[in-house]
Amino acid sequence: MRLATGIPAPGPFNLARRHRMKLTMDGSRAFALALAVAFLAGGCAAPAPAPVPAADQPALAQMAQPYGDGLRRAGISTVMVYGNGARVRLGTRFGDVYFRYPAGLAPTAFALYVGAQDIEVDSDTFNAGNAAQYEAAFKSVLPEAIKRATANNTQEAQQRLGGGGGGGGGGR
């Protein structure tokens, strides 16, 4: 039965159909809610980054001192090495630069901060027993950091001036 407007009149069949539609929509909502809960509970979550080392280590700052001028010239403000041995993160005036931690080196974890006149280094895992592995890491990582940051600075400057394949300038 239809009303004059063409809308089906309420009746037992139409009520049952609406009830089935409501159950289907409720089922879809339940599925979406279950999916959201699984995602938020970590079913699809990425691993959290390692915490930043926090214990001040004057002995490491002393080891890093010979690299201070080079780090400053390259515009490096921070060097972060996490204990997982995967990557080194540089904080520079042009943004972050990443490179792989050198293969074959024992893992280290430190945060190096470059000031105008000094260097501070934090590490929660450094001790006298592993000082040699930190020294080896500094001798490998810090020169590479200077090299990578300098190359990045050159590339960024060329792009900002309109050259270097960065898509800027050169129009007719």
What is the strand and helix layout of this fold?
Elements: H1 12-43, H2 58-64, H3 68-73, E1 76-81, E2 87-92, E3 95-100, E4 110-114, E5 119-122, H4 131-160
Antiparallel strand pairs: 1-2, 1-4, 2-3, 4-5
What is the strand content? 15-25%
**Over all CA atoms, what is the radius of gyration?**
29 Å
Helix content: 40-55%
Strand order of the largest sheet: 3-2-1-4-5
The H-and-E topology, N to C, reads as HHHEEEEEH
Indicate the low-confidence ranges by residue numbers.
Answer: 41-46, 168-172
The CA-CA distance between the termini, in Å, is 72 Å
Shape: globular
Structural class, by secondary structure, is alpha+beta
Q: How many β-strand runs? A: 5
Largest sheet: 5 strands, antiparallel
Q: How would you describe what is shown here?
A:
The chain has 172 residues and is of the alpha+beta class. The chain has two domains: 1-46; 58-160, no CATH class. It has four helices and five strands. Strands 3-2-1-4-5 form a five-stranded antiparallel beta sheet. A hairpin with a 5-residue loop joins strand 1 and strand 2. It is globular. Mean pLDDT is 80; it is low at 41-46 and 168-172.
Give short descriptive properties of this protein.
2 domains; 172 residues; globular; alpha+beta; five-stranded antiparallel β-sheet; single chain; 44% helix
